[in-house]
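seq as requested:
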Amino acid sequence: MNRLAKWIFMAALPGLIFSCTSREKGTCEKDSHCEGAEVCFESKCITMKALKKLKEDREEAKKPKICKDNDGDGARAGKGCPKGELQDCNDDDPNMAPGKTEVCDAIDNDCDGMVNEDQKNCVRTLFGGATWGNQAEHRLVNPRSIVYDPAGFVLVTDNNHVWKIHLNGRAEIMAGSHLSNFIDGEKDNARFSYPTGLIHSGDGGVFVADCKNNCIRKVTATGSATTYAGFCSNLTKHTNEFADGSKDHARFYCPADVALTTDGSLIVVDRENARIRRVSPTGEVVTIAGVGPVEIEEGEGQIGFLDGPAEQARFNDPQAVLVDPNGIIYVSESFNCRIRRIDPKKGEHGEVSTLAGESDTLLGIGGFADGTGAKAKFSYPHGMQFDPKGNLIVADTGNSVIRLVTPAGKVKTLYGKPGEDKYVDGPIDQARFSTPTDLDLGPDGSLFVVDTVANRVRWIVPK
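struct tokens:
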């Protein structure tokens, strides 16, 4: 090509001439030179998130480099402190500094990220709203039930999960997802719908009352969830069902809690069916007490409450169940505000009686009073557990307290104060609970409590 032809060719393609560039990859002159959602900043392509962080870091770098001991506790704090120096976690409070001794005062005295650890006669938060472990990554939503494992953790149900919470505050999801549904499967592939009561299965796993899926599930130690009894579904057309029979043919309506007997049977509180059921080791489901949510005509009885022969007894919003070594079954009954007792050896089919509590069974109004039998008052009691002496420890949810009930029906208040439904950690006599819903015994006589509305697991450590 001669010089004239070459000049004519180049003049005809000005766009090509001026579009040529020697920019290195990742550099830019304007946003269109970047890919995707990146923008051009100081001749470099960068994401908006990285740009925001860069600007924040630069603003922080402009601030004075301070390293001071404002509260005079011997520990300094600030951006100007030498690398590796232990800094004060709160330089406005002289009671908080690295190396200080932890005391039961609801603050992190020794700046280790934990509060009230290893303190006697003290209540602390194990999980929920705390700073230790990996709690910034997780949050309980309406926790309902808890069991302690001597291996060093508790298992907790909330809206859609079974959680494994270690005693150092670290948490992991044993099974379930934030999505509410029904799916049998492994770990976060499994789906639950408002799981409530749970109990150790004896082989490292747990049985779970999957309330809004209307069935009983089993979760192995490795997080594999399967259906144990009933038909699992949270569809409206599958609610309000009841049937005894084999595991596959039985029907439940919002089961609330489960307990194991010495022969391996599973006792189930079938809450919305107002019955107590048994699942035998061979898989047969039978009703052992309660006639269901029937209404009796005026003058012939009350709605949802009746002691007597098990096949005639009536329950109203039963919540939790325990079985003692003699086979006696205890049921906490929320709406009737009572602790009921089922003796399967009395009568032809067993007998139901009231151990403690009294209320207006038509209105579901209880109250608060320590005392024996009918002189005691509860307000919507839920979870229960036996102490080493065979007493019942009861989460009296509506009264925001923890109660003790002896085998003779004598009731006294252990923790919390009725009417003060708030979350307060600290010395036991000053601690307060919002809505204690379930509990279990921990190591060395301690007690774990699910505080539902506060979305916390509390840990009571006595003297």
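Confidence is low (pLDDT under 50) at residues 3-20.
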